[in-house]
Amino acid sequence: MTPEVKSGFLVLVLLVLGVGAQDETKYFEIGGTLVLDPKVSETLTSLTWKHKGNIVAEWIKDVIEMDYLGDFKGRSQVDQTTGVLTIRGIKKAEEGEFRVEINGRERPGTFKAVGIRSLKGVQVEVAVRPLTCSAASETCNLDCRGDFTDTGPVRFFWKKGDTGRWEEMQESTITIFNNEEAKKIESFRCKASNPLGETEESKAEKNPLTQEASGGGSGVGIGVGIALPVLVVVVGAILLLYFKWWLPRRHATGQSNKGHEAGPGDNGVGPSSAPMLMEEGKGQTGAASADPKSVDAQNPREADAPTGDVSTVYSAVGSFNPGDADQSAVPNATGNSEDETEHEKLNNGS
Length: 350
Prior knowledge:
With 350 residues, the protein is α+β, with helices and mostly antiparallel strands. 37% of the residues lie in helices and 25% in strands. It is built from seven helices and 18 strands. Strands 1, 3, 4, 5, 8, 9 and 10 form a seven-stranded mixed beta sheet that branches. Strands 13, 14, 16, 17 and 18 form a five-stranded antiparallel beta sheet that branches. Strand 16 and strand 17 (197-198) form a beta hairpin. Helix 4 (274-290) crosses helix 5 and helix 4 (274-290) crosses helix 6 (310-318). The protein is elongated and about 115 Å long. The N and C termini lie far apart (201 Å).
């Protein structure tokens, strides 16, 4: 075999190896164990594992004992027969690219480690969208819902009725159309899976296309939604009028009534009694005008008092208690009668 043929043969072998070896994604459970298998068939004489360019483990037969380095020291192990690397308690931050050199040659392709959370035991449910979907709708959406945080690639499966088979779907949501075929389905179920596990099967959700529209309930809800704000506004307006207008007005009216009942005046005589006193004053004034002498005889102190108009009389009347005036007038009259009787007795005696 000529050198040119040998050279071409080697190039062909390398091309075949390069095509056959592809990058491989390995999913590991966060906090779990990562296992990387280079799948070698030849006898191993040397082995080196690297993570992001840093040596994780290195071994050369009869030269270097297996040595573990870096952050994985104490948590990693390499099988010297198969070349399998096992890392325990691996963290989400430790995901990334791994490479391996076997017998002095780097294996084509890489391992891409990705940390995810297992879906085993996760509960899911079928949600109908929109909520008003019914037999009157043209289409309805069914969504397989659950906690899919950090779960990596997720596959969804749907089951129609109780006896239907599980069908894989690309998305978590499916659309059902309102036709005779869809109306024959009684219920829908769903479940999901990822490379590390599978969820529990959801409860059966009745086919919304076989349910009657609840128009009355929605109308009541809309009515309540409109009436409630209006009621709040009306009650607020009533309270505002009560505290800002009616209550202050009532308080002011109460104060005014108290003033009329016990208003200012000497000897307890209030403004309400003024008109009556005024009328009495008018009568007394008229009597004085008719018989000035009688006035002088009864009350000599007021004989020289100047006469005035009604307002003057009102002021004079308002300055004393009519009860006192009556009591003072009685002694004067009684005194005059006693003097006259005594004078008659003296005359008769003489």
